[in-house]
């Protein structure tokens, strides 16, 4: 039988069959390039998907950590407020400035672009309008903007509910060690002046934080 | 002619160029083998394409030991594609034989050329023809044949035995064409 095998092998190796070999190669080459293109595309999609997944997982955990830390901070703030009978507190975020009324859990949010934005007193709930009648914020670049009742300019303050704080950094002004840099950057000096009416609520600002001066004497004791 | 070692070296540097050289060298062989099994020009050509595309994806696993092994390898790949095609198309139906231990020592004839052999093989039923080709020409063992064709080892042996008897009969009758 080995003869039979030899006959077939030698014939198949030596005698070229009648067929279009080049056309066959063209088909193979075409198919290979197609499949490699598909492979590349699949690899790219896979990479994209993996990157997106990694980022979303990372973002999720980061957001969760951030959110839970805010909740804790807010809870601590409330506790302090209740214990010390302090009615007002500043909550400062790196890009947003807040004033929080603790009793009603109302938050007044001032956007950081102090140059162009001003407080519209209309947007503040009535019982507290007077309290914010003239709030002067000295920003880092020393530009002073008077948010007075006489100048109800474009709307700036958006009144938010307490849950908005979940996504913000809360600064406990009782603690002098936290976020001094942020405070320095966004609110060097905050004070009230020229209060139109005597406020309904007796309150004091927490003013024992370095570089964060709250002049409340006129306001706190009444004019 | 470029050696198998050189083909593999080129393939390791540039797969497409290596495949081109392999195709230049063994495409004719593969076509002849595929045609011997399928007896159809278009199908054979398609299976040659499939063979070389498989080679493109798997040749990097091939370890060069000596000249001639790459030829055997590509031939086997081609035969596997042909057998898969045959099974998919249900071109043959295997009728199971009882497990007969058959001695396979008889030779149909010693003096035959390729065309005689092919014309004789074509007279055989498909199952006998495939088993005979796989065992006697392409060097597959009975367990391999039984696995590839989906039959028992005994059936494979039986088909081979019957094929040999039939071929012997055809030859003794002079029932083949000399070209």
Q: Which value, in Å, is the CA radius of gyration of chain B?
A: 18 Å
- Provide the CATH superfamily of the largest domain in chain B: Winged helix-like DNA-binding domain superfamily/Winged helix DNA-binding domain
Show unreliable segments of chain A: 81-125, 127-223
Oligomer: heterodimer
Shape of chain B: elongated
The rough form of chain A would be described as rod-shaped
- Helical fraction of chain B: 55-70%
> How many β-strands of chain A, per DSSP?
8
Overview of the structural elements:
The complex is a heterodimer of chains A (223) and B (179). Chain A has 223 residues and is α+β, with helices and mostly antiparallel strands. Helices cover 42% and strands 16% of the residues of chain A. Chain A has a domain at 87-221. Chain A has five helices and eight strands; from the N terminus they run H-H-E-E-E-H-E-E-E-H-E-E-H. Chain A has a four-stranded antiparallel β-sheet with strand order 1-2-3-6, covered by helices on one side. The termini of chain A are far apart. The model of chain A is unreliable at 81-125 and 127-223 (pLDDT under 50). Chain B is mainly α and 179 residues long. Chain B folds into two domains: 4-88, Orthogonal Bundle (Rna Polymerase Sigma Factor, Chain: A), CATH 1.10.1740; 94-179, Winged helix-like DNA-binding domain superfamily/Winged helix DNA-binding domain (Arc Repressor Mutant, subunit A), CATH 1.10.10.10. Chain B has eight helices and no strands. In chain B, helix 1 crosses helix 2 (15-38) and helix 3 (41-58) packs across helix 4. Chain B starts with a helix and ends in a 7-residue tail after the last helix. Mean pLDDT of chain B is 82; it is low at 97-106. The chains are: A alpha+beta (223), B mainly alpha (179). At the A-B interface, helix 1 and helix 2 of A face helix 2 and helix 3 of B.
């Amino acid at each position: 039988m080995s003869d039979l095998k030899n006959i077939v092998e030698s014939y198949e190796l030596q005698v070229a069959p009648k067929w279009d070999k080049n056309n066959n190669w063209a088909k193979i080459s075409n198919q290979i390039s197609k499949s490699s293109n598909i492979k590349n595309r699949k690899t790219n999609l896979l990479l994209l998907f993996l990157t997106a997944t990694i980022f979303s997982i990372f973002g999720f955990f980061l957001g969760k950590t951030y959110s839970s830390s805010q909740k804790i901070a807010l809870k601590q703030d409330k506790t302090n407020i209740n214990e010390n009978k302090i009615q007002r507190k500043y909550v400062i975020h790196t890009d947003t400035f807040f004033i929080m009324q603790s009793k009603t859990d109302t938050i007044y949010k001032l956007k950081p672009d102090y140059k162009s934005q001003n407080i519209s007193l209309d947007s503040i709930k009535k019982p507290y309008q007077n309290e914010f009648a003239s709030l002067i914020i000295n920003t880092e670049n020393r530009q002073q903007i008077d948010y007075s009742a006489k100048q109800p300019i474009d709307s700036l303050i958006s009144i938010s509910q307490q849950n908005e704080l979940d996504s913000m950094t809360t600064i406990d002004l009782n603690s002098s060690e936290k976020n001094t840099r942020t405070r320095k950057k966004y609110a060097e000096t905050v004070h009230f002046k020229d209060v139109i009416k005597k406020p309904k609520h007796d309150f004091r600002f927490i003013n024992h934080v370095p570089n964060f001066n709250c002049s409340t004497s006129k306001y706190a004791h009444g004019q | 002619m470029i050696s198998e070692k050189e083909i593999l070296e080129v393939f390791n540097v540039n797969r497409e160029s290596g495949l081109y050289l392999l195709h230049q060298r063994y495409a004719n062989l593969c076509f002849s083998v595929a045609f011997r099994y399928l007896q159809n020009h278009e199908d054979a050509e398609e299976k040659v394409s499939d063979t070389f595309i498989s080679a493109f994806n798997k040749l990097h696993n091939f370890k060069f030991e000596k000249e001639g092994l790459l030829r055997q390898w590509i031939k086997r790949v081609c035969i596997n594609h042909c057998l898969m095609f045959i099974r998919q198309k249900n071109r043959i139906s295997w009728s199971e034989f009882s497990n007969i231990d058959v001695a396979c020592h008889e030779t149909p004839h010693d003096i035959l050329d390729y065309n005689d052999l092919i014309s004789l093989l074509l007279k055989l039923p498909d199952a006998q023809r495939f088993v005979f080709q796989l065992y006697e020409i392409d060097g597959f063992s009975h367990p391999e044949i039984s696995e590839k064709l989906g039959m028992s080892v005994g059936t494979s042996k039986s088909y081979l035995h019957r094929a040999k008897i039939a071929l012997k009969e055809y030859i003794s009758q002079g029932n083949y064409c000399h070209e």
